[in-house]
Batch of 2 targets.
Target 1
Amino acid sequence: MKPILELESARLLLRQWGDDDLREFATLCADPQVMRYFPAPLSRVESAALIGRIRGHFAEYGFGLWALERKDSGAFIGFTGLMNVNFNAPFAPAVEIGWRLARRHWGLGFASEAAWTSLRCAFAQLGLNEVVSFTTRNNLPSQKVMQAIGMQRDLAGDFEHPRLTADDPLRAHVLYRINRAQWLETLHG
Ligand SMILES: CC(C)(COP(=O)(O)OP(=O)(O)OC[C@H]1O[C@@H](n2cnc3c(N)ncnc32)[C@H](O)[C@@H]1OP(=O)(O)O)[C@@H](O)C(=O)NCCC(=O)NCCS
């Protein structure tokens, strides 16, 4: 068991999950627009199970997909954070960065802000050498966040997600990477 890290950005707390987060989280995971690039929206039971897995990851590693809370309103708006890649891939073992926000909080820069804070944690606190991110080829909003935080597409890294069936149109994935030196460059221009 590692001590659990909590982070803060200008407008957000990146905090541990509370039991009260389930209601909002289940609502956002049941939204077909939010889940457009995933196989299906989640039921409340599936969202609860996902929170359980996220908490398990925090308990084991001290970092994970943080619950995002807006400082101005105290609202829970989704998650952003770091997790170990949990399937076989040419780029694994690796730590990935990911995000999922409720639709009414899109277009405000919150995902990118939380992603910057998570990246700083990865390199400055956890001492990682590289962070990866991936998404289905058509998920351009997610790729925009990757680009916004200085990640670069690894063109040779395109892969078929092994958890999706061969005929699933979401199966073709793109891979982005950033290493410590590249991150330092983005910070110092
Ligand atoms: C991917 C996702 C998190 C991106 O959310 P987002 O709000 O578009 O991302 P950002 O936080 O980077 O916000 C950028 C937008 O906010 C705008 N913005 C407004 N204020 C801003 C600020 N202070 N700082 C930065 N951007 C700001 C930007 O102009 C940009 O708008 P644009 O998309 O019209 O160009 C969101 O679409 C989502 O939750 N999708 C569903 C889940 C998902 O697919 N997750 C990824 C799976 S791999």
Target 2
Amino acid sequence: MTIDEGYTKFVCDWTECALPDLAEIAELCRWRKPLFDAGLIGVYEDIGIGFGNISVRIGRSPDFLISGTQTGHLHELAAEHFALVTQADFDRNRVSCSGPIQASSESMTHAALYRIDESIGAVVHVHSEQLWRRLKGSIPTTSEDVAYGTPEMAREFARIYRVSDFSSSGIAVMGGHAEGIVSIGSSLAVAATRILELQNSNRPKG
Ligand SMILES: [Zn+2]
């Protein structure tokens, strides 16, 4: 099994600039911390590649703030670690973003989820070998043939949102992305708590 995190399969049109003073930045920092502490966002030390990313929709717009590329190793994030994604063109595999850092290489997946339903206010993507192995196929799972960060993944998420309980449970396994799990919610608190509760229930009792 290959870890494919860190590849940027899409073209990122990046405008380097400071971010506006958005309240969502503090919220992202607050909810990323317990996910990092739980090992759900981090870095594969042996290959030096970060994994996991977190985003939040700005108001009711299609725009979202997302953690920047290769920030997985950082214990805490600050404003300089986020990018604002303002456009995503799935067919051209192209994302436009602005901010002090380029958006996560998985921005296309986040963009795809926000586009499915206006009520999705936040997206959390984590890696967990145990959760992935345990839940793959038993909860909504994207096809193994679909790699992350591709236009096909965008269509695949829309499909499982329609045909499974992903829209209500808010958690899906990325079948074609080793260790990859996604949660969605009306807010970051909802999306992050869903993953953290799963992680807690995965611990051995006693
Ligand atoms: Zn991933």
